[in-house]
Specification:
single chain; alpha+beta; Nuclear Transport Factor 2, Chain: A; globular
Length: 156
C-alpha cells in the first residue's frame, strides 16, 4: 500500500512538471533559438529579453542591453516579425569544447528570402545560450544594417 502511494505521488509530480512546461534539463539549443526569434518579433520587446538568450562571453553582450543595439542589426523592430525555418542541432564547434552548433534559416518582413543562420551554443548552468550567431545575407547587403563586407551579419 505504501509503495503504491509513493508511486502515485511521483507520477503526479512528473505529470505536473510535464504539463507545466518545465524543462528539467534546461533550455535546449533549438528551443533557445526559437525563443530568441520569438522575443525579437514580440511587441513590445525589450533589449534585456533579447540579451538573455546570449552568453555573457559573446563579444557584443555588454551592448545588447539597449534597443539601439538591436535597431542597427538584422533584428531591427520594423523588419519583424521574423520566422525561422527548421532547426538542425549538430556537433560541437572546436573553438568551444562542449558546445553545440545549430543551423537554420531566417526571414524578416522585407521579403520572402530565407537567409542561412548558424548559431553556436554553450552551456550556462543547465541552459544552452547563444555564444555566436551569424546570418548569411549574400549580395543583398543594402537592405540590412551592420553587415560585414562578406555578406554576413554576426554576433561573435
Amino acid at each position: 500500500m505504501k509503495q503504491t502511494t509513493i508511486t502515485l505521488i511521483l507520477t503526479a509530480i512528473a505529470l505536473a512538471v510535464v504539463l507545466s512546461g518545465c524543462d528539467l534539463f534546461g533550455t535546449q539549443p533549438d528551443a533557445r533559438l526559437q525563443q530568441f526569434v520569438d522575443d525579437a518579433s514580440a511587441s513590445p520587446r525589450t533589449a534585456t529579453d533579447m540579451q538573455r538568450h546570449f552568453s555573457p562571453d559573446a563579444n557584443d553582450y555588454g551592448s545588447m542591453n539597449t534597443l539601439a543595439y538591436w535597431e542597427t542589426s538584422f533584428f531591427a523592430f520594423e523588419d519583424g516579425p521574423f520566422a525561422l525555418g527548421p532547426i538542425a542541432v549538430g556537433d560541437a564547434d572546436s573553438r568551444y569544447p562542449g558546445s553545440r552548433t545549430a543551423t537554420s534559416s531566417i526571414k524578416n518582413n522585407l521579403g520572402p528570402t530565407m537567409y542561412g543562420l548558424t548559431a553556436v551554443f554553450v552551456t550556462d548552468g543547465l541552459d544552452w545560450v547563444i555564444r555566436e550567431l551569424a546570418i548569411t545575407v549574400g549580395e543583398n547587403v543594402d537592405e540590412f544594417k551592420n553587415i560585414a563586407p562578406d555578406g554576413v551579419w554576426s554576433i561573435r
